[in-house]
Specification:
Strand 3 and strand 4 form a beta hairpin. The protein has 283 residues and is α+β, with helices and mostly antiparallel strands. Helix content is 35%, strand content 31%. The longest helix is centred in the N-terminal third of the chain and has 36 residues. It contains 9 helices and 7 strands. The N and C termini lie far apart (100 Å). Strands 1, 2, 3, 4, 5, 6 and 7 form a 7-stranded antiparallel sheet that branches. It has a domain of 181 residues.
Length: 283
């Protein structure tokens, strides 16, 4: 009996073969224009890195000059332990945190130190490599790591600006954020929103807090006027002995002004609030 392959060979036909997929990387490496594409990409990446470095150095110089001109102290990096505070706006814990740089420090009349700075959030990832050289990466969480893990920290999100001022009280957490559709839905669902007497304030901000009595007491007319004067560009948070002002990144020349605003807000905390929520030492 003549086989199919015998008949195929007699007729001059070739046996069927499985198609071989061409490796895209091999195809790319064989093109005449490949070196030029690689060169352009490398140049673009290099220019971006140079621009970022120059921007950082330029901002550092500008912030330092603004601080000195305003009679304030300056540090390129956080030397005060600011990032230890776990604000709601800047999460900390469970492999997350934030860093402060370009720190402008105002020393108030009563000796309190108020800081304005740039802030970036970061997340930690655990990188592991197996025997075959294959790497895996996952969120680093306490208690879930392996001895062979290498922890890598990645900054995420845009750089923002903030100020921290010490309070003469120990405040329950209170967040005053910009009003929008999402915040209205959240407030309606959780019943945490707080309407105050100022219509401008109510249109601009939503208030979320653990203690309604504290919110009503601390948000008096003077405090509300200062908040409304920012036209919704800044959000605020009271937590423990700290007041946080948080905004999109501002020009380095404006960091001293942000520190002054935080200091002024710290000083208008009313006496009844201090009496009820306790006095804390100035730091």
């Amino acid at each position: 009996m003549t086989s199919f392959w015998s008949v195929a060979s007699i007729l001059g036909a070739q046996p069927f073969e499985d198609p071989v997929e061409e490796d895209p990387l091999v195809w790319f490496s064989e093109q005449w224009w490949t070196p030029w594409v690689v060169l352009v990409v490398c140049m673009g990446a290099g220019l971006w890195m140079i621009r970022s470095l120059l921007h950082h150095r330029g901002r550092d110089h500008q912030a330092r000059r603004a601080a000195v001109a305003s009679g304030m102290e300056y540090r390129s990096e956080d030397g005060y332990g600011l990032s230890k505070v776990a604000f709601r706006h800047m999460a900390r814990g469970d492999g997350r945190g934030w860093t402060a740089n370009h720190v402008v420090t105002l020393t108030s009349r009563d000796g309190a130190r108020v800081h304005a700075f740039d802030v970036r959030s970061w997340t930690e990832f655990a990188v592991n490599e197996n025997a075959q050289g294959e790497k895996t990466m996952r969120r680093a969480r306490p208690g879930e790591g392996r001895a062979s893990d290498r922890i890598m920290r990645r900054h995420q999100g845009a750089t923002r600006s903030a100020a921290m001022a010490p309070l003469p009280i120990h405040a329950p957490q209170l967040v005053i954020g910009r009003e929008n559709l999402a915040s209205k839905v959240f407030a309606a669902a959780t019943r945490l929103d707080l309407d105050l007497e100022s219509e401008m304030f109510n249109r601009t901000y939503h208030v979320i807090g653990e203690d309604r009595a504290f919110a009503r007491a601390v948000l008096d007319a003077r405090m509300i006027d200062l908040m409304v004067s920012t036209e919704g560009k800044i959000t605020f948070e009271f937590l423990g002995r700290w007041l946080l002002l948080h905004a999109e990144q501002i020009e380095p020349e404006l960091l001293p002004g942000l520190a002054r605003l935080a200091d002024e807000m710290r000083q208008v905390v009313a006496a009844p609030v201090i009496e009820r929520w306790g006095r804390t030492p100035v730091v």
